[in-house]
Amino acid sequence: MTDALLARLTLGVIFIYHGLVPKLLMQNATEMRLMDLHGLPHSLIATAGAGEIILGLAILLLRRQRWPLWLALAALVLLLVDVAIFAPALLSEAFNPLTLNLAAGVLCVIALRARRIA
């Protein structure tokens, strides 16, 4: 298994997990608080979770396509900026968005650097 494929697989699992567990299965309090800070209904958490799962599946299943990786990288950067603006206290918590998004972003870059993954 190449490093790029391992990065892609790990990234796909991260997106699927974060869409499924904190958003769809658990309705995490932090997710609800972020919606409140934006003045958005909690029902959008499920939509965001479904979107993350779809992106994770695209990363895993469309291995010859680069757009899911670029979309993931853009989402990671934009969501990190959003948290820094609307909920900066989250950046100092254990297992925070800064370290998670940084690691996932690096996985995107590793996967993108590969020529083609068979």
Automatic annotation (TrEMBL):
Coiled coil: none annotated. The chain crosses the membrane at residues 5-24, 44-62, 69-91, 97-114. Keywords: Membrane, Transmembrane, Transmembrane helix. Pfam families: DoxX_3. This is DoxX-like family protein. It comes from Phytopseudomonas seleniipraecipitans.
